[in-house]
Design brief:
heterodimer, A: 395 residues, alpha+beta, 2 domains, 13 helices, 10 strands, elongated, B: 314 residues, alpha/beta, Rossmann fold, 9 helices
């Protein structure tokens, strides 16, 4: 038989017993929609969690740390090498030292970070008041957290912007000997961060006192896909690296487990549906035994009979899968709307809690199709093996 | 007549195992059937004629012996080959019609062509032309349950002819029909044989039909006890005539002990037809759906112009 004729015949058989077909398909729909609903919730929450940790830009960033190994120094030579790694579009070194902000009559501890002007953009650090970055690599400017300014009573951002302060940078040299350097910097930007104390300043200012060995270097790649290669190259040079991607990977690996657990619940429902398909076809086999006898007597091949039965199971799976996918997806949208409505009405933010990736949708339909087809194989083989003469006598 | 028999059985036996008891359904059956013959297998129920039919139809194999169809051994065929044999070389007409209730009439007729991977357009065309031949064109879209028994049997005959088979096997085709429908079906079978030279094998326990056969195989206890050549073959016009079966057949039947059945059947038919004759004059068939011989003649010959069903490869 031609495939189109097998499909026609199978579809006709499914239509013949509409109620039973609908019930069997419903079983698959329940299973698939449960899987889609729950796993989409998993994907949605995962996206939400990852987006709270890092924006997409953060995933193109790599932090290269100073190495403990001898001879591997994170200096300007190293920075030049990093610039030449394919895929790296931006390199920003960082130096940090303990420091004090000193105004007449008061002083407060902070940490001085020497960075390049583009660092703020790379790290997604935005000053809430004043300028977002330095005017040049050598400008005597600082961007400071409000936490560092409290100790020196500069709590009003608008009057503080533009103020010049003394910053004492403390360098601990060999033998615990402290060396102090005093610089005069103009506060050009302030962040709202009250809990942490820091003061960003152009790296060249700190470099003047230092042996040009950086604490860390930020690398930015043009594409996220380049990240892995860049990281491998840097690590092969002997430098340890960290990336937001590490955190994101951890979150993802947790969510993979969550999704499997959620999908597992739906899987149970799908297995029940598969047994339903098996049952339906077994009954259909008994009902149609005589008919199978007729088909064989007038020249139907065993394979024709088997294929008609298998196609019926596959169709149940396909319909169930497609309808189940739509149902689960729509259910997710409705629940999300409801949750967001409640959340926004009590002053929260609306979030996308459900996310169904296209690949997952296609996978689920294919999965329903395959599981159903497998459930249909045994009844189909039994039908194919029926003795034509006995089948004809069966009433 | 070409002397390669279209069907040949050499010493076939068929035994069934019923628990510990071995039942011999057929014992050393030898026969040859030639192209264009009208053959009757006649015997009481349990004589093995249905078993013989299932062997001819390729629905099961013999316990021993060999069956040749146009010189080809049937035992050499695998399941696929047997399916093809049943599909293209044999047309079967069952006592219980055996149409598939979920399909309409045209689809039923076209089903063997569906198995043969013939395109939908071609097979429906062929099915419709056969439906016209059996005089049921207007029922094309009906299902079998909407048709009378006689109509269903004519559809079944159309289905059996759809692949232009070599042999038409009819197993008690009139067994479930009233006498009027039975006559229609018989007329159709006889004219298929006479006009289209199709080989017809009729299995029956009704002696009225023996006169139409070229040869009659009398069967008893799983054996062919007598083969009788019928020298006075009746034609299709005689179906509704009241007549005793010919003496030579009667003699043959008497020899094998089937005479009682023959006589009773003949008497019964005579009595019934005399009653009917009051308002229906002889030779006029008051039935609009009667199959005219001219229509029947359109059925393609099995060998000559028959659209040799060429199966499309997948």
């Amino acid at each position: 038989m031609k495939i189109i004729d097998i499909l026609r015949l199978s579809f006709g058989n499914l239509r013949r017993n509409m109620l039973r077909t609908v019930l069997t398909v419903s079983g698959v729909v329940v299973g698939i929609s449960t899987i889609v609903f729950l796993v989409s919730l998993g994907f949605g929450l995962q996206n939400l969690a990852v987006s709270k940790v890092a924006n997409l830009d953060a995933l193109t960033l790599l932090t290269v740390n100073a190495s403990q190994k001898e001879g591997v120094v994170l200096d300007t030579d190293a920075v030049d090498k990093f610039k030449n790694i394919p895929g790296v579009i931006s390199v920003s070194p960082l130096l940090s030292y303990p420091a004090q902000i000193i105004v007449p009559g008061a002083s407060g501890d902070t940490i001085a970070y020497g960075v390049t002007p583009k660092y703020f953009n790379l790290e997604d650090i935005t000053a809430d008041y004043g300028s977002k970055t330095f005017s040049s690599d050598d400008a005597a400017e600082a961007i400071v957290s409000i936490g560092s300014l409290k100790a020196v009573n500069l709590t009003d951002p608008s009057s503080t912007i533009g103020k010049e302060v003394d910053v004492k940078i403390v360098k601990i040299a060999e033998g615990d000997k402290k060396e102090d350097y005093l610089v005069k910097l103009k506060i050009v930007g302030i962040t709202k961060d009250e809990s942490t104390k820091y003061a960003y300043m152009p790296i060249n200012i700190i470099n003047k006192f230092d042996g040009k060995v950086f604490n860390s270097v930020k690398l930015k790649s043009g594409k996220r896909d380049d990240m892995a290669n860049i990281r491998k190259t840097v690590e092969s040079m002997g430098y340890p690296t960290t990336s937001v991607k590490d955190t994101v990977d951890q979150i993802n690996s947790i969510f993979v487990v969550i999704q499997w657990v959620l999908g597992g619940f739906g899987m149970v429902a799908l297995m029940v549906a598969a047994i339903g398909i098996f049952n339906t076809l077994t009954i259909a086999l008994l009902e149609r035994t005589h008919e199978i006898g007729i088909m064989k007597a007038i020249g139907g091949r065993n394979s024709d009979v088997a294929l008609v039965f298998t196609a019926e199971a596959s169709m149940i799976g396909f319909f169930g899968g497609t309808i189940g996918l739509s149902t689960g997806w729509i259910l997710g949208i409705l629940i999300n709307l409801l949750v967001n409505f409640v959340a926004t009405s009590v002053g929260g933010t609306a979030n996308a809690l459900f996310y169904t990736p296209l690949w997952f949708g296609s996978f689920v339909v294919a999965f329903a199709f395959i599981i159903s087809t497998i459930a249909g194989i045994m009844p189909a083989l039994r039908a194919a093996k029926l003795d034509p003469l006995e089948a004809l006598r069966y009433e | 007549m070409a002397k390669v028999p279209v069907f040949k059985a050499v010493n076939i036996t068929k035994t069934y195992q019923l628990g510990d008891i071995e039942v011999k359904a057929l014992q050393s059956v030898n026969l040859e059937i030639y192209s264009g013959e009208f053959i009757c297998f006649f015997g009481q129920s349990g004589c093995g004629k249905s078993t013989l039919l299932s062997l001819i139809a390729g629905l099961q194999g013999p316990s021993s012996g060999e069956i040749y169809v146009r010189g080809e051994k049937l035992s050499g065929l695998d399941n696929e080959g047997l399916a093809k044999y049943r599909r293209s070389k044999i047309g079967i007409v069952f006592q219980s019609f055996n149409l598939i209730p979920s399909m309409n009439i045209v689809e039923n007729i076209a089903l063997p062509l569906t198995f043969a991977r013939i395109s939908k357009k071609q097979r429906l065309e062929r099915a419709k032309s056969l439906l016209e031949t059996v005089g049921l064109s207007k029922y094309a879209d009906h299902t079998s349950s909407q048709l009378s028994g006689g109509q269903q049997q004519r559809v079944a005959i159309a289905r059996s002819l759809v692949t232009a088979p070599w042999i038409l096997l009819a197993d008690e085709p009139t067994g479930n029909l009233d006498s009027k429908s039975a006559n229609e079906v018989m007329r159709l079978l006889i004219s298929l044989n006479r006009k289209s030279k199709r080989t017809v094998i009729l299995i029956t326990h009704n002696p009225e039909y023996l006169d139409y056969a070229d040869r009659v195989f009398f069967m008893q206890d799983g054996k062919i006890v007598k083969t009788q050549v019928n020298s006075k073959v009746k034609d299709v016009e005689d179906v509704d005539k009241v007549e005793h079966i010919s003496d030579e057949l009667k003699e043959a039947a008497k020899e094998v002990g089937a005479v009682k059945a023959v006589d009773e059947k003949a008497k019964g038919k005579k009595a019934k037809t005399e009653e009917e004759a009051v308002d229906s004059p002889e030779d006029t068939i008051p039935d609009t759906e009667t199959v005219e011989p001219t229509e029947t003649a359109e059925i393609p010959e099995p060998e000559a112009e028959a659209p040799e069903v060429e199966e499309e490869k997948k």
